[in-house]
Design a protein that fits this description.
Shape of chain A: globular
Helix content of chain A: 55-70%
Number of helices of chain A: 14
Structural class of chain A: mainly alpha
Helix content of chain B: 25-40%
Distance between the termini of chain A: 17 Å
Radius of gyration of chain A: 22 Å
Oligomer: heterodimer
Number of strands of chain A: 3
Largest interface: A-B, 49 and 55 residues
Structural class of chain B: alpha+beta
Radius of gyration of chain B: 19 Å
Largest sheet of chain A: 2 strands, antiparallel
Order of helices and strands of chain B: HEHEEHEEHEEHHEHEE
Strand content of chain B: 15-25%
């Protein structure tokens, strides 16, 4: 294998400037939305006393879950010693940092009192998963920064596997923490299950790789760098495996719930009678985010069509679309379904007891969510402009140690 | 020196106050017994009067404040407890029911198999094992030694995790600017709040506004008192009659119990 050379992107093209300005506008719009909501009060959002976490939390959870998952690409190289992934390590770390920052920005600015974030830093209640997450998030940032430095400083490269192992364990803990935010909510029928932690870990693998694929493809295309089909095929198939794992955990989650008569109400709601939530579950999460990408990456390759850049990009877009649907169903749908105060009884009150709560995302909330995505995008965009995150080429000959210089026949497995 | 004097003053006044309250409480209890022998007067207070707490003395765990609600006496058309709570704590809304705060609400419960309908007030159940306290990242949600679950409005960051965790939907998020707040019930936009069991009244030796209103103009369905005092009316009632806790299966040991539910 040849020595990998990393370089900055030039960052002077019209495309780069256009993207930077667009992201900047979305970031500022997100901040403006926060000022507006904090001034007027949260009644201007779609949130209520029934649905207390809205679309900003969908964006935040997507970014945080995907941040831990996107780091897998580096871990596959440094812990599992897959040399093909070696050139992908640095971008993996940068994306992990950027997405976590974006997610945290949304979480903090969606608070009722974001000005009191210092209070959260000074007072911590250790029975709260949120308090644990404070350490998991800050620890993640510290570990990934060190991990990245060890990768970029050639003399320190020998410590990369050890750092990768720490990063792997930490990212698993972090996603366990994210899933457990919902897992510990025993009173809410849609949550309150230990499966939330492994489900979120599976989601992170899938969502993270989908984001990685898209960013890698866009960055290489934008800066005129080649990606060989060996790598594309690997990334596509790996995404397919992760998508299948998410589908598996989703099936276990709902089948287990269906067996418990007490949870049949919430299952009927999500799977059959929930209107928009049922549509998003079957149409968005299962079909668009699950089955379609599986067909794209597996069936297309079986039929002799190598998954090229477009196929991988399309599969990744579908996975991310499904991811938002899944988080929307989980976070919003789980709250829309009413709490059961009196099992088996019909209830009504002036406080929406016994009725499905309505929620419509408001513009400021969507603005805040997109602002967090824009922050992550800006960090990556300027990261790859200022430092050497991207390999100069990802051609087969440059990265595949087994590449013989002869193109394999279509359909030949590796 | 000044500080010492201040402490002395603070120590003297409530002591005097509580003595007077104790006397008045005994007097009213005696009057109640004399005026209505044999009639069980709900909401008239505990057998041993609630004693005002000295302001410089920490809350003690000797008491556990609780409530017993007789659902049979609670009329579906009566809203006295809710109105009293709104008035007492300054909870007048903005005409937006989805986002306006409700610390206590009347819930209509109907058994679909038998058709039996009941109406009962639901508020913070002041659990012994409150999930809201467990999940609060900053410790703003806390349980006092005497069992009252409260939110420290200065420490609440408005994350709303307690609202996600509460099985009783007992908490509200302040969605809008507030005006004309009551001095004894400080509230804040962007923070979470819920029934305080009228802690300001209890600390002054009184009882919650909802219980008082129910006793005066309602169905006399609510009884407030110390669950740890075996001589209190509430303790005797829960010892003599079958009572229920909402979602007892969750094992949270709520301080609010229901009779004839």
């Amino acid at each position: 294998m040849k020595r990998i050379i990393f370089s900055e992107i030039e960052g002077r093209s019209a495309g780069f400037r256009g993207l930077a300005v667009t992201l900047g506008v979305f970031f500022l719009a997100g901040l403006a939305a926060v000022v507006y909501v904090e001034h007027a009060g949260h009644y201007v959002t779609g949130g209520s006393n029934q649905v207390v976490w809205g679309i900003p939390d969908v964006f935040a959870m997507f970014l945080i879950v995907a941040a831990s998952g996107v780091l897998n690409v580096a871990i596959i190289s440094s812990v599992f010693r897959k040399t093909l992934y070696r050139p992908l390590e640095r971008l993996s770390c940068l994306l992990a940092l950027a997405m976590l920052l974006g997610g945290l920005m949304i979480l903090v600015l969606d608070l009722g009192r974001p000005d009191r974030v210092i209070v959260a830093m000074l007072n911590r209640n250790f029975t709260s998963i949120f308090a644990w997450n404070f350490y998991l998030y800050t620890g993640f940032i510290a570990i990934v920064v060190v991990y990245l430095w060890l990768q970029m400083e050639r003399r320190m490269n020998r410590f990369v596997p050890a750092a990768g192992m720490v990063a792997l364990l930490w990212r698993l803990a972090l996603t366990t923490g994210s899933g457990s935010i919902y897992g510990v909510l025993v009173a809410r029928e849609a949550y309150g299950s230990a499966i939330m932690a492994p489900l979120f870990i599976a989601m992170s693998f899938s969502f993270g790789l989908a984001v990685y694929n898209l960013v890698l493809l866009a960055a290489c295309k934008g800066s005129g760098r080649d990606i060989g089909d060996v790598l594309l095929r690997r990334l596509g198939r790996l995404l397919g495996i992760f998508v299948a794992v998410v589908l598996y955990f989703t099936a276990v989650q709902h089948l287990t719930n269906l067996y418990a008569a007490e949870h049949s109400g919430v299952e009927r709601f999500i799977l059959r009678d929930g209107g928009i939530y049922t549509l998003l579950f079957w149409g968005g999460q299962v079909m668009v985010g699950g089955l379609l990408p599986l067909v794209l990456v597996f069936v297309s390759s079986r039929r002799g069509l190598r998954p090229g850049g477009r196929t991988v990009a399309l599969a990744s877009v579908l996975v991310i679309t499904g991811a938002f649907c899944q988080l929307y169903v989980l976070i919003i749908g789980g709250q829309a379904y009413p709490l059961t105060l009196f099992p088996g009884m019909e209830v009504s009150s002036s406080f929406y007891d016994g009725v499905v709560a309505s929620y419509t995302p408001s513009l400021p909330e969507i603005g805040l969510g997109l602002g967090g995505v824009a922050l992550a995008g800006l960090v990556v965009l300027f990261g790859i402009k200022l430092l050497r995150f991207l390999p100069t080429t990802l051609e087969n000959a440059a990265i595949d140690p087994h590449y013989l210089g002869v193109r394999r026949a279509p359909g030949n497995s590796e | 020196m000044n500080m010492n004097r201040k402490t002395e003053n603070v120590g003297v006044t409530p002591g005097f106050d509580s003595g007077r309250r104790r006397f008045l409480g005994t007097l009213s209890a005696a009057a109640g017994v004399t005026l209505a022998p044999g009639v069980f007067l709900y909401g008239a207070g505990a057998s041993r009067p609630v004693v005002a707490r000295e302001l410089d003395v920490a809350v003690s765990g000797a008491a556990r404040w609780g409530m017993l609600i007789d659902v049979k006496r609670c009329d579906s058309g009566c809203n006295e407890c809710v109105s009293a709570c709104v008035e007492e704590n300054g909870l007048q809304g903005h005409g937006r029911p989805a986002t306006d705060a409700q610390w206590i609400r009347k819930v209509n419960v109907r058994d679909p198999d038998t058709g039996l309908s009941q109406s009962l007030p639901v508020m913070c159940q002041h659990c012994a094992e409150p999930p809201c306290v467990d999940v609060c990242p900053t410790g703003a949600s806390f349980k006092r030694a005497d069992g009252i679950v409260l939110v420290d409005r200065h420490r609440c960051i408005g994350c709303r995790y307690c609202m996600m965790a509460c099985p009783y939907k007992a908490r509200s998020f302040v969605h809008e600017e507030l005006e004309d707040q009551k001095p004894h019930t400080p509230r804040g936009k962007g923070t979470v709040e819920g029934c305080t069991l009228c802690v300001h009244r209890i600390d002054a030796g009184g009882q919650p506004a909802c219980v008082e209103a129910c006793g005066k103009t309602g169905g006399k369905a609510m009884l407030f008192g110390d669950l740890k005092d075996s001589g209190s009316e509430i303790s005797q009632r829960v010892a003599s009659y079958a009572t229920q806790q909402i979602r007892a299966d969750l094992g949270l040991d709520p301080g609010v119990r229901y009779q004839n539910l």
